[in-house]
Amino acid sequence: MSRQINRSELGQFLKARRSELSPSAVGLPETGTLRRVPGLRREEVAQLASISAQYYTRLEQGRLQASAPVLTILAGVLRLDDGQRDYLFELAGKENTRPRRQKDQKVRPSMQRLLESLTDIPAMVLGRRMDILAWNSLASALITDFSRIPQEQRNYVRLIFSDSTVRSRYVDWESMARDCVAFLRMEAARNPDDPRLTALVGELSVKDPHFRQWWAGHHVAHRAFGTKAMRHPVAGDLILDWETLSSAGDPDQQLTVWTAEPGTPSYDGLRFLASWSATDRTAPRQSGTA
């Protein structure tokens, strides 16, 4: 009897928490249509959590017992604080194996100085989840003006799928996007309880059918170098080699640089872009923490 009561209370708790979240708060587009109920719909929560709408509905109706992994995902999707998370697990009769809180990532001063010294090579520092931690002015000129993007939205995978400017830079966008999904899959294997990663995957799964399809494919990749064809409105068509170097001080931070073979049109194009961007160059930016 008590188990049934707890399930019922669990469903009411989930319903109350989703009613407090707007679509924009979890990265979903506002359709402009009037909602019959406040907050997120059941289907939206299910999509963000990568579970079926039927499964979530039964859970909210008290007809299903949730597993600990599903509870962990829902806690991230619904933006539960520590106390709410504890309560959620207590209602479900599950042990709350709280994930280790990750430290905020900050670019080390030596890495920042290195970025500042690379005036003719595009470079940026990516952190966990491929968050963009820092960049130099030529990377901004090559890809997009990262400073225009709110700090909490500065994630390279998100930009690849949702930013038309970034998307247009890659001649073979599908190949680049697939690589990003595979890299993110590898990140999910290393940090399965990262609530921000869970929220990012849920957001992109709802927004983009390609991401949803490729994520379901469970392909993984971990490459440190490659070649990409890019199309730039100022520098023209570019064939650039990219290289990723891990930071000794923080293995979760990686410096990515783009170069072109000397004597090629791409090399000349990159030099022209550096000269063009220098006319309005600002100091390299960094997002602070992530």
Automatic annotation (TrEMBL):
Q: Output the Gene3D superfamilies linked to this UniProt entry.
A: 3.30.450.180, lambda repressor-like DNA-binding domains
Q: Which is an annotated GO molecular function term of this record?
A: DNA binding
For the HTH cro/C1-type domain, which residue ranges apply?
A: 34-85
Q: Which domain of life is it from?
A: Bacteria
Q: What is this protein called?
A: XRE family transcriptional regulator
